[in-house]
Amino acid sequence: MCTARPRDGSPTARERPRRTGCPRNAETVLEDAPNAAAPQAWLVPPLFARLKSRAAAATVTVSALALLATTACVPPLEPDPDTAGGGNGNGNASKLLGELTVADARPMKGYSRNKFSHWRSTGKNCDVRDTVLERDGKNIELSGCNVVGGTWVSVYDNKTLSEPLQVDIDHMVPLANAWRSGADEWNDKDRSDFANDLDRPQLFAVSASSNRSKGDQDPSQWKPANREYWCQYAGDWVAVKHHWKLSVTAAEKTALTGMLEDCTWTSAP
User: What angle do CA 88, 206, 16 make, to 5 degrees?
Assistant: First the structure.
């Protein structure tokens, strides 16, 4: 039997299982397949015996193939190319960073936050902001699906927050930075998908003060005060930009390279 084990990687809902222990061929399956009765050659003419023997062999083959199908043995799944981290070193982060296009920042002409529609509704009187507050907090208090209480630790500055109004939802790659990196050429739906992306490491509950200090700056201009978070921050930034095919400036790439040096993760950012 095949056993499923989760691959080393992100502890989020995005991890995919890989199969291990699958037989290399049908030999182990055939051992459990029903034995075909040997033809009674002395009761039938030789020609008919040969035909019956061939039919029996075909039956065993079909049984083996069917049993293989039911074991669900499949080759190991390839890792998600947009997962920046890994179990060793800095995982894929440096590789993904090397795949990003280096280009000058594009002009801000035409930019408006309204072109990145957020926050999307996620239920009656609830939106993506509530989703992130509930995901990132502890001891969450709800009124319907609205988050009205809880505790949050801001990973950017290690501040503990006890009121939802003290918490901002930060876009890892800020909207204005995305505009300068290629989102100016997207349509409004794609920009809204980016602004509400819960599948990549793009949205985080952090202190309002750290979020406003960061603004729309890239890692060459701003880094979290919490230096222990730099590896995770750089890995997440790269993963988001890689997935959305956004460019980086030369200074941004240099800063990210420095942040990723000597990084290790027990799980992917």
Answer: 40
> What ranges do the domains of the chain cover?
23-70, 93-260
What are the pLDDT digits (tens) for 175-219?
999 999 999 999 999 999 999 999 999 999 999 999 999 999 999
pTM: 0.67
Sign of the torsion formed by the C-alpha atoms of 52, 56, 58 and 62 = positive
**Would you say 60 and 236 are in contact if contact means Cβ atoms under 8 Å apart?**
no
Sequence-distant (6+) residues with CB within 8 A of 139 are: 149, 150, 151
* Nearest one of 89, 136, 83 to 268, comparing CA atoms: 83
Q: 175: which DSSP letter?
A: H
* DSSP classification of residue 98: H
The type of residue at 241 is: K
Cα Rg of the chain (Å, integer): 27
Distance, CA of 93 to CA of 234 (rounded, Å): 8
Q: Are 259 and 84 in contact (CB under 8 A)?
A: no
And the tokens for 197?
A: 């992306």
Helices and strands (DSSP H and E) totals, the chain = 9, 9
Q: Residue 37's CB: how many other CB atoms inside 10 A?
A: 9
